[in-house]
Design goal:
The complex is a heterodimer of chains A (108) and B (114). Chain A has 108 residues and is mostly beta strands. In chain A, 0% of the residues lie in helices and 46% in strands. The chains are: A mainly beta (108), B mainly beta (114). Chains A and B meet through strand 3 and strand 4 of A and strand 4, strand 5, strand 9 and strand 10 of B.
Amino acid sequence: DAKTTQPNSMESNEEEPVHLPCNHSTISGTDYIHWYRQLPSQGPEYVIHGLTSNVNNRMASLAIAEDRKSSTLILHRATLRDAAVYYCIPLNNNDMRFGAGTRLTVKP
Amino acid sequence: NAGVTQTPKFQVLKTGQSMTLQCAQDMNHEYMSWYRQDPGMGLRLIHYSVGAGITDQGEVPNGYNVSRSTTEDFPLRLLSAAPSQTSVYFCASSYIAGSYNEQFFGPGTRLTVL
């Protein structure tokens, strides 16, 4: 399983963009890169995933490095509701290995 | 759709007691799984199922049993509860097994074993 490295915590101001990095240098060629987030006292929530190309959806954008050894989750305008722990998960099968993630704090 | 539902929300057990955590989904998903989350840590996979009648072990299966008799339900049984099983338990489902699929998580069951 690919190992991931994420900052323990990050802070952002409301309405500003946030770039959450993830290093996954041991990723295999068939691993999809998934991002989930977990709001306080809730189950994880899917954010976005991709394989090689950058991806956009209504929640966020995912920028994947050309060598796939790192990726960045981009929240274009952080809101207070985006305060959560964000997990980057390279996934080859169904066994999602959650690390410690990045705790995002959004300041008003 | 109700999505993934879990009952109960909270449970307190004494050491040695048994119980079943319930999980149901109404999205006709083939893949279902159980995770546990200890304080300050990420989730760890306990058991999973790729379809009715098929189950397999995850990362931390000891002390837990599962069965999948229907597509909708995937109960998790604690055979003889131990304090080390104090945790928050999450059930998840996805359309089919595969690394390209989004997983939907339930709200969790907070279990305390005294």
